[in-house]
Amino acid sequence: MGSKAGKLPKKKCCVDKPRCKRCPIRMLAEGTMPAGYTVKKRKLVKVKKAA
């Protein structure tokens, strides 16, 4: 399991300071977010494929 994204991010940001390791906002900023996911309104969402 030597993948770049070790664990999936949490479903929702818990707004802790400092941000936890699995925070979706932190993972997005660091570039460790798994492919096909993004963050909207502090929630983890799947990216739809362009038609």
What is the CA–CA distance across the termini? 32 Å
Report the order of strands and helices. Answer: HEE
Extended strand count: 2
Provide the structure class. alpha+beta
Roughly how many Å is the radius of gyration?
11 Å
Strand order of the largest sheet: 1-2
Mean pLDDT: 81
Into how many domains do the coordinates divide?
1
Q: Fraction of residues in helices? A: 10-25%
Count of individual helical segments: 1
Largest sheet: 2 strands, antiparallel
- Give the overall shape, derived from the CA principal axes: globular
- Quote the beta fraction: 15-25%
List the quaternary state of the chains: single chain
Stretches with pLDDT under 50, minimum 5 residues: none
Overview of this protein structure:
- By secondary structure, the chain is of the alpha+beta class.
- It has one domain (7-51).
- It contains 1 helix and 2 strands; from the N terminus they run H-E-E.
- A two-stranded antiparallel sheet has the order 1-2.
- The longest helix has 7 residues, at 24-30.
- The protein is globular and about 40 Å long.
- 12% of the residues are buried.
- The mean pLDDT is 81.
